[in-house]
């Protein structure tokens, strides 16, 4: 295999890992985003328990994405991380509070203690999500590179567009969280989740439209690609697919109120929104790994390093997928109040 | 003698790091070449933030540990049930626990 082929394989692997991270940690961060709207303590316990067996496994994919970037695309790692230093450090600190809150929420004895850890859980989820959204917006907008080093300041990531993507991600993760709760719970909490999911679904679709409308005008390269014939032909089904998913989503949640057999459908539709948006983003940026200037081939490590790591990935990724699938299978079905889920 | 191992490891680490200067990769890459172009205030801010967060979170953990220590064992306490597996870690009161909240 040539170095270019291996670099392309790695680019797809890392893009897949980041996508899996976004949707999987997305729904458990979404639980924290919904916390201020879940009034009942028992319902909040149930919502937290619904992700307790899987949330830390979900974050595995962030490490695979970051570690992969470090090992296989060192130039991308060395330019993106300094550029996004503030949001990424803040995200990690927020994840600390959130992760600890999972354990501490059930150790407190006073209402004040519970309130504090609920705040840590919810606040950590918000800050982590906002930081990821800011990082995404800043990356898409372009990172200033001179030679082989980041050449911008330490606040370059804060732009109107990155604020928009941060708000979009809060709505999107909230939507995933609401659809997850709707799928995993019954009765009153399920109904609360249904109402939240409808509102967040409208918000998320609005944000997808807004970001899509702005994207082509961010960089000349995006514009050239978006308005070229092959791209437009390939992209034409995307709005149609989103419309079909949206129709299914709202029909299931709003119009078939009393038929809840297909309680997994809204979650699947929300995953579809994310998948289509993510693919659109990837196609716009490809083959850049650090827009606007560095391609995946320029950023790639020497061929032998890439191949060596690919052997490890080929062994490890199926194992991770297998145990992840097993955990989800093991904890399938509706949540039961008062049961242990860890 | 308790902390001597920790002290030895820490000083060994400092010796390694200081002794390698001015290189990051000995003989190949200097620290000046490998340092990231991050503004000093950003690095200072993140360092302070890590210190504050770690003290807060570890402080809370030690607080709950001490609360558990304070509760003396009593003769009336029940051991773990033998007909169920006992969880070793977790977040929710386990089915095998006699009392839903052992900290109380």
Strand and helix layout:
The complex is a heterodimer of chains A (342) and B (104).
Chain A: H1 3-34, H2 41-51, H3 55-58, H4 60-72, H5 74-83, H6 85-104, H7 111-141, E1 145-146, E2 149-150, H8 160-184, H9 187-214, H10 220-226, H11 229-235, H12 237-255, H13 265-285, E3 288-290, E4 294-295, H14 296-299, H15 303-330
Antiparallel strand pairs in A: 1-2, 3-4
Helix pairs in contact in A: 1-4, 1-7, 1-8, 1-15, 4-5, 6-7, 7-8, 8-9, 8-13, 9-12, 9-13, 12-13
Chain B: H1 4-20, E1 23-25, E2 29-30, H2 31-34, H3 40-70
Q: Mean of residue pLDDT of chain B?
A: 81
Q: What is the helical fraction of chain B, as a range of percent?
A: 40-55%
Helix/strand/pairing category of chain B: mainly alpha
- Global mean pLDDT of chain A: 88
Biggest sheet, spatial arrangement of strands of chain A: 1-2
Largest sheet of chain B: 2 strands, antiparallel
Low-confidence runs of chain B (pLDDT<50, min 5 residues)?
93-104
Tell me the greatest interface: A-B, 32 and 27 residues
Overall structural class of chain A, as computed from helix and strand content, comes to: mainly alpha
Fraction of residues in H or I helices of chain A: over 70%
Total number of helical segments of chain A?
Answer: 15
Individual helix count of chain B? 3
Oligomer state equals heterodimer
Low-pLDDT stretches of chain A: none
SSE topology string of chain B: HEEHH
For the biggest sheet of chain A, the summary is: 2 strands, antiparallel
Arrangement of strands in the largest sheet of chain B: 1-2
> Could you say which overall geometry of chain A the principal axes of the C-alpha atoms support?
globular
What fraction of residues of chain B sit in β-strands?
Answer: under 5%
